[in-house]
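Figure-free illustration: sequence to structure, shown twice.
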Amino acid sequence: MIYVRDDDVLLPSRQWPDPLARFKEVHEMLADFDFVIHIPTLLTSELDRYPEAIDYIRRETNDGWMIPEFHGTSHIDYADLTPEEILQDYKKGQDWFKAHLGVEFTRHYTPWGAGEDERGAHIKPTAVAAGVVVVTCAALLEPEHIIADPYATYEKYESREIFIHWWAGIGKLERALTKIKP
C-alpha cells in the first residue's frame, strides 16, 4: 500500500468555496488507485460544521479506504501548549473520534510540523504517554519527488506516505500515482 497524508481537511480555503465537494473529489481520485489508502488528518472543530463529511469519512473508513488521524481539535501550534494542555486536547480529540467516527486515532500529524525542533521537544514524550505517535513534517514525500524520480516504482515507495493538502492541485498527485502503479 501507498498512503496519502491529506492535511487540513475542510479548513476553509478561498480557492474552494465548497470544501466538502473538493475533499470528496480528492478522495474519489485516490479511490481509483486500489493500492492507495487515504489518511485525512482531521481538525475536529472544522468537521463539526460538516455533518455530511463525518458520515462520509465514517463510511469510507469502515469500507477500508481511509484511515482518519488527528491533526488537532483546531489548527494550533502544539509547541505553544504545555504537556497537560496537549493531553487534554488528545482526550477531547479521542472522545470526538470515538463519538463521531467510531475509531480512535493513533497518530497526531501536528500542524506546521510541531515537535520537530526544540520548541516542541515536549510534544513527542507527551504523545507517547497518551499512546499516540507524533508525525511531523520531517522528510515529507511530495508528489513532485516521485514524478522527478527516474527510478520510481511501486516497490520503492511501498508503505510510504505521500503528503498533500486537500485544497492543493491533485494533477501532480495523480501523475505520481499513475507512474508507480503496480
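We now fold a second protein in the same way, so the two outputs can be compared directly.
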Amino acid sequence: MAKWMLIYVMIANGEPMAVNAMGPRQTFDWMYECFTARDKLSDNVGGVNGYFPKGKQAVCIQLDQ
C-alpha cells in the first residue's frame, strides 16, 4: 500500500528548508489523513482555512512503500 508524507517547506534567512512535518519517518496510510494534518499545520503556523502564511507551505507526497 502506498503511504503519504506531509512535507513542510519554509524560507528561513532567504534559504528554503523542508522537513517531515510529523517527525522522522512518520507517514499516513490515506491521502485524506495527510490533507487533514496539512490543514491543522496551516492553523498552527498562523495560516487561515488551509492557506499558509507567506514563506511557508506544506505538501502531501505519495511514497512507494
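Summary for the second example: Strands lie at 3-12, 15-20, 56-63.
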